[in-house]
Structure formats: structure tokens, C-alpha cells
Amino acid sequence: MIKVYFNEIMYIEARKDNLMVHLRNRSSITYMTMKAMEELLPVSQFIRVHRSYIIAKDKIVAVAPLFVEIKETQIPIGKKFKETVFRNFP
């Protein structure tokens, strides 16, 4: 078990049967569903932007029509989540 603080999380990526939690300096794998992870995270700090991605709101560098950028990583915005993303980041 590894203790992870919310402010260390950059984004979370679904990969087949597990989740890759991308932190500032490392990554960690956990065996949870996206739905379970989403329920654990505070809504004020995290937003789901794609069926395979949850991102930390304060780590966003740029928001474009098709993706959100965190550091040098471009994370796609899913059609289902587009309205929510642009409502939070006009």
C-alpha cells in the first residue's frame, strides 16, 4: 500500500483491468474501477474528462476543443464529458 495525497495526483488513466495514477514524480497502479475512484476523489479538485481519464483541476495548463493539457501530456476530452469540462473551464 502506498499513501497518496490528492495534491500529488496529476491525472488518472484507465488501463484494461486497472488504473494508472500519474503523480508528480512517479506513477502507481491500482486495481479499482474508474467509478470507484471517481467516488473517492473530491469533486472540487478533480474532473472526469473522458471515460478513461480523471484529471486534477489545478494541474491543467490549457484547455482546447479536443483535449486538456497537463504538463506536456494531452488528455482527450470525451464527447459525453465535453459540456461539463467547458462549463468548469470557460
Ordered list of secondary-structure elements with their pairings:
Layout (H helix, E strand, L loop, with lengths): L8 E7 L2 E6 L3 E4 L3 H7 L5 E5 L2 E4 L3 E4 L3 E4 L2 E4 L5 H7 L2
Antiparallel strand pairs: 1-2, 1-5, 2-3, 4-5, 6-7, 7-8
Key descriptive features of the protein:
90 residues, alpha+beta, OB fold (Dihydrolipoamide Acetyltransferase, E2P), 5-stranded antiparallel beta sheet, 8 strands
Outline:
With 90 residues, the protein is of the alpha+beta class. It is built from two helices and eight strands, in the order E-E-E-H-E-E-E-E-E-H.
Look up the CATH topology: OB fold (Dihydrolipoamide Acetyltransferase, E2P)
Poorly predicted runs: none
- Overall, the morphology is globular
Summed up, the helix count is 2
Corresponding CATH superfamily: LytTr DNA-binding domain
CATH C-level class is Mainly Beta
Gap between N and C termini, in Å?
Answer: 38 Å
How many strands, which pairing sense, and closed or not: the largest β-sheet?
A: 5 strands, antiparallel
Q: How much strand?
A: 35-45%
Number of strands: 8
Order of H and E elements: EEEHEEEEEH
Helix percentage range: 10-25%
What's the average pLDDT?
Answer: 93
Query: How many structural domains are formed by the residues?
Result: 1
Structural write-up:
With 90 residues, this protein is α+β, with helices and mostly antiparallel strands. The chain has one domain: Beta Barrel (OB fold (Dihydrolipoamide Acetyltransferase, E2P)). The protein contains two helices and eight strands. The strands form two sheets. The chain has a five-stranded antiparallel sheet. Strands 6-7-8 form a three-stranded antiparallel sheet, with no helix packed on it. A hairpin with a 3-residue loop joins strand 2 (18-23) and strand 3 (27-30). The longest helix has 7 residues, at 34-40.
